[in-house]
Specification:
With about 300 residues, the protein is of the alpha/beta class. The protein contains 10 helices and 16 strands. It has helices at about 1-15, 30, 35-50, 60-70, 85-110, 160-170, 190-200, 230-240, 250-260, 275-280, and strands at about 20-25, 55-60, 75-80, 80, 115-120, 125-130, 135, 145, 155-160, 170-175, 180, 185-190, 205-210, 230, 265-270, 290. Strands 5-10-2-1-13-15-16-14 form an 8-stranded mixed sheet, sandwiched between helices. A two-stranded antiparallel sheet has the order 3-4.
């Protein structure tokens, strides 16, 4: 009887989400775990079989760091952003568009998902310009320094025509976070930024960020301090007060930009916990942190019914 109740609880959400587009951003720590990746692939398979359109964007920071060190290169990150010299760019191309992308495609294939591996360079999906030297504040010392990020790009234009064709025909695009500049040269782009701009351009009902934690935590060491839902203004207050800090700041910032650009809702949740994605989308309470422009909608809402 419990299973029947769960199915009935999911029914209105199945109706609401049908034919909606959702962008799922997958962190490198999820892709590195066979169990987590396999569980996610099962969830995505279910979503596609109930006619929800899925686009996956992935990063790969931990894998890029590991490969760099194997090659004798010490990675440099500033406020969660990777400084990308020529050698690091070569690693990013090899790891992001190669190893991780293929691993995700393989997991999806095992569970009957028709997936296509792409980068932002393919089909002119993402146009970017090289980021100029930027003043960055060191959280530890409070000092501001000028940082040259190297071959790191800021997205200037998006063309989702290819992605729209793929999702309309039942494929799941899996996109690594590389973009091309006007000369065709590849640039490393933050994966959270890629997910945000694609969600906006695709008119997504949800932007979902899968991480190694349950969601936004008031105390990073206490999973019980999960913030279940908040508005954009409340999210900004958490960043301004320092409750949200470190690598979570750029994630939350790009999600706010997506919401202000028309995305229905944004969610941060665990990519490690089994079936967290399904519990978030198809139950009343959800399991992650739901972020909305104004608040007040039912859990699982976002975009037109």
């Amino acid at each position: 009887m419990k299973d029947v109740r769960l199915l009935k609880e999911a029914l209105p959400y199945l109706r609401r989400h049908r034919r909606q587009t959702m962008v799922i951003k997958l962190g490198g720590e999820i892709a590195a775990s066979h169990e987590a990746l396999d569980s996610l692939a099962q969830d995505v398979s279910l979503l596609t079989h109930v006619n929800i359109r899925i686009v996956i964007v992935h990063g790969g920071g931990p894998q890029a760091t590991e490969m760099s060190r194997k090659l004798g290169l010490e990675p440099k990150l500033v406020q969660g952003r990777r400084v990308t010299d020529e050698d690091t760019l070569a690693v990013a191309k090899m790891v992001f568009a190669g190893q991780i992308n293929v691993d995700i495609l393989s997991a999806l294939r095992r569970h009957g998902v028709r997936a296509v591996g792409l980068s932002g360079v393919d089909g002119d999906i993402l146009h970017a310009t090289k980021r100029p030297p930027t003043e960055m504040k060191d959280d530890a010392t409070g000092e501001t320094t000028l940082v040259d990020f190297g071959h790191v790009g800021d997205v200037t234009d998006v063309d989702t025509h290819l992605l729209s064709l793929l999702v309309e025909d039942g494929y799941v695009p899996v996109i690594s976070s590389l973009a091309g500049d006007e000369s065709g040269s590849p640039l490393n782009v933050n994966a959270d930024t890629v997910a945000s701009v694609l969600a906006r351009d695709l008119g997504a009902s949800k932007l979902i960020t899968l991480t190694g934690v349950p969601g936004l935590l008031r105390d990073k060491d206490d999973p019980e301090s999960l913030v279940s839902r908040l508005t954009i203004d409340e999210a900004r207050e958490l960043m301004a007060s320092g409750v949200v800090a470190g690598g979570m700041v750029p994630k939350l910032t790009t999600m706010i930009e997506a919401l202000e650009g028309g995305v229905g809702a944004a969610v941060i949740l665990s990519g490690i916990e089994e079936s967290a994605l399904l519990l978030e989308l198809f139950t009343v309470r959800g399991v992650g942190t739901l972020i909305e422009k104004d608040g007040g909608s039912a859990r699982g809402a976002g975009g037109p019914a």
